[in-house]
Request: fold
Amino acid sequence: MTNVLFLKNVLVVSLAMNMGLIWKISLDDEQALTSKWSIHQNLHFYAHKNNLIQQEEEARVSKRAPTTSSGAATDGLESVVINLDHGDPTMYEGFWKQKGEETTVVTSSWQHISYFSDIKNVCWFLEPVLVSAITRLHKVVGNAVTEGRHIVVGTGSSQLYQAALYALSPPNGSGPMNVVSAAPFYSSYPLMTDYLKSGLHKWAGDAYKFNKEQPYIELVTSPNNPDGFTRQDVVKGDKGILIHDLAYYWPQYTPILLPAVYDIMLFTVSKSTGHAGSRIGWAVVKDREIAKKMTTFIEINTIGVSKDSQTRAAKILQAVSENQKEAESFFDYSYKLMAERWRKIREAVNKTELFSLPSFPAETCSFSGQTFGQLPAFAWLKCEGEVDDCEGFLRRHKILTRGGKHFGACMKYVRISMLSRENEFKLLTDRLPAIIS
Amino acid sequence: MTNVLFLKNVLVVSLAMNMGLIWKISLDDEQALTSKWSIHQNLHFYAHKNNLIQQEEEARVSKRAPTTSSGAATDGLESVVINLDHGDPTMYEGFWKQKGEETTVVTSSWQHISYFSDIKNVCWFLEPVLVSAITRLHKVVGNAVTEGRHIVVGTGSSQLYQAALYALSPPNGSGPMNVVSAAPFYSSYPLMTDYLKSGLHKWAGDAYKFNKEQPYIELVTSPNNPDGFTRQDVVKGDKGILIHDLAYYWPQYTPILLPAVYDIMLFTVSKSTGHAGSRIGWAVVKDREIAKKMTTFIEINTIGVSKDSQTRAAKILQAVSENQKEAESFFDYSYKLMAERWRKIREAVNKTELFSLPSFPAETCSFSGQTFGQLPAFAWLKCEGEVDDCEGFLRRHKILTRGGKHFGACMKYVRISMLSRENEFKLLTDRLPAIIS
Reply:
């Protein structure tokens, strides 16, 4: 019994120290929380929840509550808030901590002074080592064709999404270009399309409902964020241009079936290797003029992309390609971990009548040879029965998720990150079956 | 004579290898060049000139001309194109090459996985080490007050400029907010304000000519880009909000007189320490709500800022603060180099009647104790006499500069970077006095 208590305390202290991602807060007034929540509704989602947590933390501190760690140790696990709202890929830290110097980057102070990387490239701020690493990895994995195409690097794939909108929207069109995506769609798309009230493009909502005889851009996210399904374009109009967001088209999340060959394909290290803090994404672009315009957007927006991060991403992608030969490669490790987590969350959900999860047909991955159904980076959880606000319901059980309305869906659904650190994931799978309606 | 030829060849080969910044091109047809130039007039300026050079390079290669290096070696220095269009701060490489491990950054692959840096900070993606380094350096130099203010980090100060516009423009205003700056103004301001045809803000041109009874944002760049003068706001209306771009308010460019205490102040490592390729800028912001909105812009735009670059910038800024005690500090070195370059360019310009440069009154720098006039990062050169297109005139002598019209001024002026590598700068000061009308 003492041992169990000791372990419990150690776990709690470790959780509390966990880079600010888990917060112990005492929710004196659930109503107050809900009302604060709605005030912030129009803010961007990340800021929104962080601010909320921060305000609660400040309120708690001002009430002279015990500090996070000792408070947690006293009160136990049930009052720990689990924040799985955002897809912060901290799950991957475990793999990279095993790696040694072959993935360490050393940068001297005289390096990366110039704005320029390769003046002959359409994307003049793209480091040649990153091009090599990207094309090699796509070849090794077999998830995208890069031959004869242009790579454009971005400060994460968010910037590349905006660059693609800029490149595809005519500068002198009769009105802003319609931008659509099939619901449920990634919650940031509407925000990124409309936050500047651009005259070039505007969010036109769910692609299934789009029936205007006007030009449009359709975002196809496959596997989809939030629900993990493989997707095709749905409007099928003759005035459409497609952007394929393939952030999750990697073998830890989905069976790789064919190398993708779309006109504009977006990828990011955040979801492939987990290095979200580096802010490196890339687009594989067929048309040179589109690649040039995307480059122009990034020039005006941020005059290029961090060379420090490009060099580091190159080393890491290179290591992923190379360690395919090793006993446990990056994709072996992450596939096994995702499969294990999906087994555990399905087990947890099956213990209760309250929730359900999507099912995926099994297919054989051309890369790993494994046969499996999707193992999405997010669980698209449905509250069954009479619960209409699943986000609010889970919040009362101190699980922070992102509700369906942000994805153009109903509030019976929430998106839950599957990419957290192990201890947070364990808290989730312990808590879900313990919830009573 | 043989020695001279040998040295000349070595110099030319080294120039040709110079990271693509100097290009040897044979300009068979000056007319063709001019017409290509105007076709590209609406593209962003960096892309514009790079594309131009690239097209010429391709044209040259397709004519089976000799390769750049051997071609240059054959033809001599007078045909080498000197590209001083952009303010690429390669001048600083020399200083940083002397530095050893104390400024080298080592990053393991498990670091910087998470999106988050400090969830309690208004700017949640700002690395705490960077905050310390920034506030310390401002204290050491005495160029800005940071106490009681918020730091927001950006992917260069360009992103922060856009973040400030977003934060200062009312989301539901009756029309887009007017954005002005006194001519000559930084050529990227109009582009960054208008490239997305935002409904939030629009470029309203020269602040001296702004006379609407409407709200406005005035950009005050001091010392100014392109001309180097110290500036104050000029509209002085009661509906104005100011953004101070203080990228050049460092003691190598201008005597520091007082710590700046404006509401929104923008800085960047590109121009302070020269690390343009890292894309790190910061804003010092008085109002918490403005800092939050700027943070929201960066969240939506790029979901934060490279942690790799933030960590590196922190180490470099820290080293600059610390090495103030050493025999030759960073600011000693760079002040001496700028003073020397300005002496040389004035000497070169004084040898001819064709050009003139601005004069600056001497003042005493509170940081260094030196008394000197501005030593701007750009020379704002005027073509005297009958030359009305100074950019075109210099281009015919294979000196690429940025013409006055891009800065809201007349084409008798050009902006020339003073921050190039030494060999490029020497070519410039050798060539200018040799030009015959």
In short: Chain A touches chain B through 82 residues (CB under 8 Å).
